[in-house]
Design a protein that fits this description.
This protein is α/β, with parallel strands linked by helices and 347 residues long. The chain has three domains: 2-107, Rossmann fold, CATH 3.40.50; 113-119 and 221-337, D-amino Acid Aminotransferase, Chain A, domain 1, CATH 3.30.470.20; 135-217, ATP-grasp fold, A domain (Dna Ligase, domain 1, 2-Layer Sandwich). The protein has 13 helices and 15 strands. It has helices at residues 18-26, 46-49, 64-75, 85-93, 95-100, 110-117, 119-129, 142-151, 181-187, 198-205, 260-273, 306-314, 320-324; strands at residues 2-10, 31-39, 52-55, 79-81, 104-105, 136-140, 159-163, 173-175, 212-217, 223-231, 234-242, 253-255, 277-284, 287-292, 335-337. The protein has a five-stranded parallel beta sheet, sandwiched between helices. The chain has a four-stranded antiparallel beta sheet with strand order 6-9-7-8, with helices on both faces. A four-stranded antiparallel beta sheet has the order 11-10-13-14, with helices on both faces. Strand 1 (2-10), helix 1 and strand 2 form a beta-alpha-beta unit. The longest helix has 14 residues, at 260-273. The two termini are 35 Å apart. The relative contact order is 0.13.
Length: 347
């Protein structure tokens, strides 16, 4: 193992996958690493698991890129590894300035990031390349929402709605004519993302005619993702996995899959967006519902450390061909189970 530690900045280090990611980076078996965490919250778990921690503005704040740049200068960061979709646009725009400071940001182009984060642009891309996504309408205002829901089959069919710009399940709601508010009030646990009737949503929107929403076909079926590493629009290494046992919008159980058809779809998407570094493509049933140009939950193997391989490739320490040659190591028998843990400290 090299004596010179490699300093890696991991953003959004309060994210659910942080502990496993940091453990994988430390346990790479090749080189000592020094981990620097950043987050907008002082209660991020990475504050306690990293070697250094810095508070930064939210990823969407105009000051976020400068704050990360300052951390990179102060800490001697060589690699910036973002975990949050909200961090990507600012980091993509600052890639050249980060490189001048000797830091490589593992993020795709700003254009690719914006096309992925804008869900309407994302679904239009899928339509254009012939990859199945949900039927959708981009609208603003209660009247337009109601009209779009009707066009998609409501009330006979259940549909869903989501903000045009969001991450994960934030703002996602199912619209069902059979939603029972009395049952939700008396029988369900607080905090659940309850189904709404269209009239409830229209009432909640009120006179807001500016907030853009996507009204969509409700995709149903097994949840799967494709995770991997890309370069210049080429998938170098990746595999599909299931997403199961949902809790608070997060999958808690995963199974690695072998599915050439899913990989072929991922390759078309990655090529169209010219993605670089980590990516995650999420499906429900046969519909692609999310394209995340960042690292997501990884199913780790002792002989296939995807985050470390992505770091090495970004630094030019492993070639595209060498990465691709590792594909036979992917084990479809691999499983991952998330669970809650905690840390304690004195202040």
């Amino acid at each position: 193992m090299s004596a010179e530690p490699l300093t890696i900045l991991v953003s959004a280090c309060g994210a659910p996958g942080t502990a496993a990611l940091l453990r994988a980076l430390r346990g790479n078996g090749e080189r000592a690493v020094r981990l620097v965490g950043t987050d907008m919250s002082a209660r991020a778990v990475g504050r306690h698991l990293c070697d250094a921690f810095h508070l930064v503005p939210p990823g969407g704040d105009p000051g976020f890129p400068d704050a990360v740049l300052d951390v990179c200068r102060r800490e001697g960061v060589r690699v910036v590894l973002p975990q949050s979709s909200f961090d990507l646009d600012g980091l993509a725009g600052a890639k050249a300035r980060l490189a001048e400071e000797g830091a490589t940001a593992l993020v795709s182009s700003q254009e690719a990031v914006r096309r992925c984060n804008d869900k309407a642009a994302c679904y239009a891309l899928l339509d254009a390349i012939g990859v199945r996504g949900p039927a959708w309408r981009r609208v603003a205002g209660a009247t337009a929402v109601a009209r779009a829901a009707g066009e998609l089959g409501y009330p006979e069919r259940t549909v869903c709605v989501k903000p045009v710009f969001s991450s994960g399940t934030r703002g996602f709601r199912v619209l069902s004519a059979t939603a029972d508010r009395r049952e939700q009030l008396l029988a369900n646990r607080p905090g659940m993302a309850e189904a709404l009737r269209l009239e409830d949503l229209v009432e909640a929107l009120g006179s807001d005619d500016e907030t853009e929403l996507l009204v969509m076909e409700l995709a149903e079926g097994r949840e799967r993702t494709v995770d991997g590493i890309a370069s210049g629009g080429r998938v170098l290494l990746g595999h599909p996995k299931t997403r199961e046992a949902m809790r608070a919008g997060l999958a808690m159980y995963f199974e690695t899959l072998v599915d050439p058809a899913l990989m072929e779809r991922a390759e078309r998407i990655v090529a169209e967006l010219a993605l670089d570094h980590f990516f995650n493509i999420q499906l429900v049933g046969e519909c692609v519902i999310e394209i995340n140009p960042r690292i997501s939950t990884i199913v780790y193997q002792e002989d296939l450390n995807l985050p470390w391989l992505g770091v090495k490739h970004a630094l030019g320490e492993i070639s595209a061909e060498e990465l691709a040659a590792l594909a036979p190591r992917i084990r479809p028998s691999r499983r991952a189970l998330r669970f809650f843990d905690q840390v304690e400290w004195d202040e």
